TrEMBL record:
Organism for this UniProt entry: Gadus morhua (Atlantic cod)
Name of the protein this chain belongs to: Radial spoke head 3
Broad class of the protein's primary localization: cytoplasm
Biased composition, class Basic and acidic residues, residue ranges: 30-41
Polar residues compositional bias, start-end: 1-20
Length: 332
């Protein structure tokens, strides 16, 4: 194969730019051809030591290449836009179908024939770049012509068993193969047994652990029930003691009231007689003043005693009923 380098031209400011499009490389023979038979249009590549862009000699007196002035920004953008337009035009030309026109009533349609379908999209713009390979080796000299042999060659007869006895030679190989196979099988069986024992031990440990956790949960629940029952019993006993205290206070108050009211009437009469409020000169005054007042006081006292008795009976009945209910709840 032969490759064609793009030609270059030197501008006025001393820089080099490409002036031709890249072209596909031409085919050539594998070996180097005779220089006399090569085509005149094939160019020889020069040595980089003769290129003026390669610095030679001392480094303190290098050749200074003038820096070109920056081009106008509008001109650069216009040049890039022209390049992109040309690239899109070339891409459309390459993607254009080369098949003949469809007959009347039909049209060409792009159909995917691959195993997996994929979404069709715009093709990415690509640029072909060529490179020059190293020089090929010289063509080796043509070997001398040697005519083919005719007739029969000399042969050597070898009888069976003189060079190789299969039954004898294969025995060590078979012993090694069988021994290695049996050893590997024993190792695998031992490994399986060990894994089975480990799994059994793990299952037993897991069962023991589950049993311990269940026992711990049962004990915790039992302790919780006992604690709650103890709290309820203490609260009930406190209520009973409070009710007994209240009943005792009420009974003591009732007894004190009765004792105080028993001597009150006599002391009142005595005090009134000593102060001169009771006199007998006028009978009418006694009948109109003393007897109505006396009857009112007696009826009032009797009514108060009746009310006190009814209240006491009610309190005793309520206290007794509550204590009976409390004892029934404790028994249940």
């Amino acid at each position: 194969m032969s490759s064609v380098l793009p030609t270059q031209k030197e501008s006025l400011n001393g820089t080099y730019t490409f002036s031709s499009r890249p072209r596909p490389a031409q085919n050539r023979s594998k070996y180097r051809e005779n220089p006399a038979e090569t085509n005149e249009r094939h160019t020889n590549y020069g040595n980089i030591m003769y290129d003026r862009r390669v610095v030679r000699g001392n480094t303190y007196a290098q050749q200074i290449i003038p820096i070109p002035a920056p081009a106008d920004r509008a001109e650069i953008q216009q040049r890039e836009a022209h390049k992109r337009a040309m690239a899109r035009k070339r891409a459309r030309a390459q993607l254009r179908s080369k098949t003949p026109d469809a007959i009347a009533g039909r049209s060409h349609v792009d159909v995917q024939t691959e195993l997996y379908l994929e979404e069709l999209s715009d093709h990415i713009e690509a640029t072909n770049v060529d490179c020059q390979t190293d020089a090929f080796l010289d063509k080796p000299p043509t070997p001398l012509f040697v005519p083919a042999k005719t007739g029969k060659d000399v042969a050597t007869q070898i009888k069976d068993g003189e060079l190789f006895d299969f039954d004898v030679e294969v025995r060590p190989v078979l012993e090694v193969l069988v021994g290695k196979t049996i050893e590997q099988s024993l190792l695998e069986v031992m490994e399986e047994e060990e894994m089975a024992s480990l799994r059994a031990q793990q299952r037993s440990f897991q069962e023991l652990r589950d049993a311990e956790l269940a026992e711990v949960q049962r004990l915790e629940e039992q302790e919780r029930r006992r604690r709650e029952e103890k709290g309820r019993r203490i609260a009930q006993q406190r209520e009973v003691l409070e009710k007994e205290r209240e009943t005792a206070e009420k009974v003591a108050a009732w007894a004190f009231t009765q004792h105080y009211l028993a001597d009150l009437l006599a002391s009142v009469y005595t005090a009134l007689g000593d102060h001169g409020y009771f006199y007998d000169p006028v009978e009418k005054d006694i009948e109109t003043s003393f007897f109505p007042w006396l009857m009112d006081e007696v009826s009032h006292n009797l009514e108060k005693s009746y009310v006190a008795r009814d209240l006491l009976d009610t309190l005793i009945l309520e206290v007794t009923q509550k204590r009976v209910d409390g004892f029934q709840e404790l028994d249940s």
